[in-house]
Write a structure and sequence with these properties.
Length: 319
């Protein structure tokens, strides 16, 4: 669907923001670009729809070089959601959503129907919201409109640059759930930038971890945990913001007392997340012990599930 071949970007001041990267994003994939601030995520994303020209290499979309596309065709056929809510303040919600369909000269009643459908899709009552101005919506609602605006003309590819980072934790979780749901039902290819590993774990089919303009590892969430390619990956995974100081293995293990756990290595319930990650990178399963007794077990699946569960800031994750 999208292929990068030896792509580099050097800005005019000499900054090498992206350094000869290669990867392929599959059709229908939820692809997450992650890495520390300044590692080249936004530059990588913006090169895909030619918001930033490449310095070197080639990007293909559906087997065609992006330089061969008509620029409008490329832009309109790739949805784009910005970090900052970028709705036009003087336009209604309906007009904001309808921008690309209008540019594509859709019929009025098709646009009307599409806006209705999209608002319903993210739980905003069309009759209530259609004619409001952005200032009459909460931050979370505005960002939801930002997301559906990118979907309006039914693009195959959607680029999202830290779309939820300005939101409070609850709106953020709600939108993450929405976008997972959306992607399952509409089967779009989504390229999603974040610096939040918890968010990446929750959303991604594959995670592309960047540092210094290069790809450090491109893998599924499970592989990233079980087979980190180096210490940078290990640290990035274990040092992420979801690291919880009162982490206890009892929160995520499956209680069990039976003996067939005896072949697995063990940790106490107070082990750190880092110890768990290290051990699970070598073993399928860990026995959890308390006072020398097996009280349960955890495996990689359970750890990933736990890491991607939303833990409200300052709250706990007991259900
Ligand atoms: N227009 C620009 N001119 C010069 N350097 C830039 C420009 N935009 C970004 N950079 C630099 O390129 C590097 C990558 O930036 P960016 O892609 O925005 O990273 P990220 O999105 O991962 O935070 C950073 O060092 C940044 O300072
Ligand atoms: Mg960025």
């Amino acid at each position: 669907m999208i292929t990068f071949e030896n792509v580099s970007k050097v800005y005019e001041d000499g900054t090498r923001a992206v350094d000869s990267i290669n990867f392929t994003i599959n059709k229908g994939e939820f692809f997450v670009l992650i890495g520390p601030s300044g590692c080249g995520k936004t530059t990588t994303l913006k090169m895909m729809n030619r918001l930033i020209p490449l310095s070197d290499g080639t990007i293909f979309v559906n087997g065609r070089k992006i330089s061969d596309f008509n620029i409008h065709e490329l832009r309109w056929d790739i949805g784009y959601v910005l970090q900052q809510i970028a709705l036009f303040p003087h336009m209604t919600i309906e007009e904001n959503i309808a921008i690309v369909p209008e540019l594509k000269k859709w019929k009025k009643d098709n646009i009307y129907r599409r806006v209705t459908e999209l608002l319903e899709m993210v739980g905003l009552d069309p009759d209530t919201y259609r004619n409001r101005k952005p200032s009459e919506l909460s931050g979370g609602e505005q960002q939801r409109v930002g997301v559906i605006r990118a979907l309006a003309a039914d693009p195959e590819i959607i680029l999202m640059d830290e779309p939820f980072s300005a939101l409070d934790p609850l709106s953020r979780e709600k939108l993450q759930d929405d976008i997972i749901h959306l992607q399952k039902s509409i089967k779009k290819t989504i390229i999603f930038v974040t610096h939040d590993m918890k968010e990446a774990m929750k959303l991604a089919d594959r995670i592309c971890l960047m540092n210094d303009g290069k790809i450090v590892q491109l893998a599924t969430p499970e592989e990233l945990i079980s087979h980190p390619s180096n210490d940078f990956v290990r640290d990035f995974v274990s040092g992420a913001s979801w690291m919880n100081s009162d982490f206890s293995l009892e929160d995520l293990m499956e209680p069990a007392h039976h003996n067939n756990l005896s072949s697995s290595p063990s940790l106490t319930a107070h082990a750190s997340l880092e110890e768990v990650l290290t051990l699970l990178s070598e073993h399928e399963q860990i026995r959890v012990e308390k006072n020398g007794q097996a009280i349960g077990y955890i495996n990689r699946q359970m750890l990933i599930h736990y890491l991607s569960e939303s833990v409200p800031v300052g709250g706990n994750n007991h259900v």
